[in-house]
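During the no-cost extension, the postdoctoral fellow (Dr. R.K.) reprocessed legacy sequence entries with the updated structure-token encoder. One reprocessed record is reproduced below for audit purposes.
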Amino acid sequence: MSKTTPPGDGDRIAVEIRPQSIEREMHESYLLYSMSVIVSRALPDVRDGLKPSQRRILFAMYDMGLSPSSSFRKCAKIVGDTMGNFHPHGEEAIYPTLVRMTQPFNARYPLVEGHGNFGSVDGDPPGAMRYTEARLSHLGAEMLVDINKDTVEFVPNFDGRMQEPVLLPSRFPNLICNGSSGIAVGMATEMPPHNLTEVCNALALLIDNDDATLEEVMEVLSGPDFPSGGILLGTSGVRDAFEKGRGSFTLRCVSDIESDKNRNRIVITELPYQVNKARLLEHIADLVRKGTMEGISDLRDESDRHGMRVVIELKRDANPNVVLNRLYKHTPIQTTYGVINLALVNGQPRELGIIALLKAFLDHRREITRRRLQFELIKAQERAHILEGYRIALKHIDAIIELIKKSASPADAREQLMKKYKLSERQAQAILELMLQRLTGLEQKKIEDEYKALIKEIARLEDLLAHQRKQDALIKDETLALRDKHGDKRRTQIVPEGPEDLSAEQLIAARDVIVTMTTDGYIKRLPVETYQTQGRGGKGIIAATPRTEDSLAHVHVANTHDDLLFFTDRGRVFKCRVYELPPASRQARGTAVINLIPITPDERVTSTRPVSRFRKDRFLFMVTERGVIKKCSLDLFANLRKSGIIACGLRKGDSLRWVLMTDGKQSIILVTEKGHSIHFDEKDVRPMGRQAAGVRGIRLTKGDRVIGCALGKADDELLVASKHGYGKCTLISEYRIQGRGGKGIKTFEVTAKTGPVVDCKRVKRSDELLGLSANGQIIRQAVKTIRRTGRVAQGVRLIRLDEGDTLARIARVATEEEKADKEGATE
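Re-encoded structure tokens follow.
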């Protein structure tokens, strides 16, 4: 169908109108729009890793001469030149792109160096572009190296006045190192950044071995490396992303638990990528106000120019591990990062694994290197051609000067030179333009030397162009030079397996720790290395902040993966994992045990026992303060209710005080406060049920009570310690086996100087000892420094106490053999 319409002034133009269904028109128009968004706006090119807006900003800065060594220029000028010459889409599109390439918390390796306010990790907006300044960073300059050597294609800009590059030469692997994100039509890209050192090593690996496997690549390129640091949990998601181009993994903050003045605090020093710190603090505060998050007393931001420091103060009785786990669950200090490696390959969007990305960059570098070598060869040949003309002229310099003098015009002189000396037009013109000072002897030598050097350079370039392997070697050298100049250490830690692969327990490192608890029920754990071995009689170091109404009661060396059984004075038992105990500093008091197990306010934990495995052939031997004893199979305590269970039935006025672990074949020693002891065979006590009350172990005199018990072994020694810090070691063989229930024999000479007996332990000469005072003083010393004495001797000074202080407890550091078999007959 045709129709003629008048445009004006009497002219008539024929316009053809074709019927089109609205469905087809919408399909075709939307397809054109979506491809325009995909290719020209949202997705990066796989070769230089840039979107058109980013590429045009960098080229505009290069065109302005804003190198890393130049002075800064106002961002308004950069934005204006970019918009006026290459990217006519408004400053609202250009300036935010420029800012993002400047921000070190968004870009792993910023391509632009900023001067002024370019925003912060708190989400603060950048200053107006009239206030801020910028120039290319060193790595930004690496993106444009050799762009003037015909390495990339140029096309006319939007108005045809200028030329702009289709892509940048990009010696820096920008797409892999900085990543990219963007939302197109029907697709999106979310590419994480990686470490430059690791990426360069992976490129070198693929240059040497094009068939390298993913496992080999992951040995040198372990995973993403985010500018904000953090912890990456699990490698399965990283492997999926590396292999298929899609995957997800968990990012977690870097935090530490600090203790001060009997309080704990959680200190966050690194956040997951792109988590807004200010919004995070607001979110935590909101959770506290709503009651979702308990145990937090204060929240503050102590970050400065030296680094991030978010401090979460905890309430006195709060367990920092519990609070931290709740923060992981309810706040973005732990978040999931989804990877979509989508980029333009030959103008088409494709999802790529890490090897495909690396090879695409290498192919780009090979093309850039080939074109650069070709450009340099042509330039060298052209210069050599001119120098050959100079050499001919220098040989006939007098005749040529005479010829030029007699010529009617420059054109006539050029024609005669070309004809007489068989020169090209360029050679003849160069001779005519030759300055007279080049005719001196020194200048003639320079021309000859330059010509010889050019011949060698031409031969080198031709050799490189003829051998691809030599070009690859050159690319490898340039890549490693880039690594050595700009590479840095990883910021993001990678934990081999994350929560999707392992249980919470498996994420806790198995290590020995010291577990201490006070008589008031405050418990903590700290590394066993905290207390170094000292000599006998020393003053020791402070193990907890002194309190007049509290003193240390229990000390164990346990593994973080052990179960810790809590026995109370009422005969009940509770269970907790050692890694669930709150860590604390040496001086800290710890956390109230009532926050870990549901004991009543007037109930007191009197004994704790670490257990690795609940075996049927192992027993718990219980002793009360009034000398009642009881033996139970260890497996009876394997499955404990959260509310605890009965461990021992007690008579009125008695309390459960000690629990030993045995193999059923031991002998038992009970020691009293007045220095008496009894040594009997464990076989005299039959295994009982959990609720049984037990049988008599020792008959006490009036006012006496049991203060400790130990497993007897003839080759070992019994260490007995008194209130004023005295102690002695006596061979257990000196304590004869008696029947249970008797009064026993004397084991320590109690005097006003020594004070009453406070504790006893079975030890070996090779053991080490921890001595704890009521005011929190602790000393670690070797048993071999304590002199062996007779059964009724006073002994020697174990710890030098301050005035008014007393010895509260002693504990033995477990041997390597006992650490390997903690469920055996150990104390």
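The chain has four domains: 50-169, 254-332, 366-485, 508-820. Residues 498-503, 540-550, 817-827 have pLDDT under 50 and may be disordered. The remaining legacy entries will be reprocessed before the final report is submitted.
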